[in-house]
Design the sequence.
């Protein structure tokens, strides 16, 4: 399965310089937040495959759900045989619709546990913010959630996709890392993976 993950900015490669066929061959698109509704609608239309998304901390401007896209915030969904969990938002550094304290994010995870158990775990975790000490920074706006580490360690998903940490913040920011058996993908702009 070929997966296109996107986050934070609209890729000129896919959007501004689109040519027919450029989005062919993808089986799933995962949007990790802070991308415009119109961009998501464009991707799902041109790729012709399912697109799942969560909200980023700057997605308060969404006027309506993007047409043809599936919001997986606070849900476990099965797409093409993959069990995918979605937890949007960032660490709370000011008042905002998609900003959470560690305690609030933990509460969201607790509400998902029954569904996770019923499905026998999950294959992919999709978030906007990273996990604590895994591609995050010490400053509140870019701090990751410790509870994501617990979720990864307990269920050992194959992939953990996140956004929020722009790779142009510094040359040392990796696109791919790992935590145990889980491959961690910073989906800033875009990343292609094979599952």
Sequence:
């Amino acid at each position: 399965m070929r997966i296109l993950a996107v986050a934070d900015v609209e890729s000129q490669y896919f959007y501004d310089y689109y040519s027919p066929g450029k989005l062919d061959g993808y089986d799933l698109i995962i949007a990790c937040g802070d991308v415009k509704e119109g961009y998501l609608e464009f991707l799902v239309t041109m790729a012709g495959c399912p697109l799942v998304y969560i909200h980023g901390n700057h997605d308060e401007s969404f006027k309506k759900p993007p047409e043809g896209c599936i919001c997986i915030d606070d849900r476990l969904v099965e797409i093409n045989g993959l069990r995918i969990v979605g937890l949007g938002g960032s660490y709370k550094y000011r008042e905002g619709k998609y900003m959470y304290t560690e305690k609030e994010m933990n509460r969201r995870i607790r509400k998902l546990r029954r569904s996770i158990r019923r499905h026998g775990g999950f294959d992919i975790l999709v978030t906007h913010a990273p996990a604590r000490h895994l591609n995050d920074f010490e400053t509140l706006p870019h701090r990751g959630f410790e509870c994501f580490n617990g979720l990864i360690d307990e269920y050992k998903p194959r992939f953990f996709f996140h956004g929020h940490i722009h790779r142009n913040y510094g040359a040392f920011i990796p696109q791919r890392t790992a935590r145990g058996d889980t491959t961690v993908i910073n989906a800033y702009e875009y990343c292609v993976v094979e599952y």
Summary: The longest strand covers residues 2-7. The mean pLDDT is 95. The chain has one domain: 2-194.
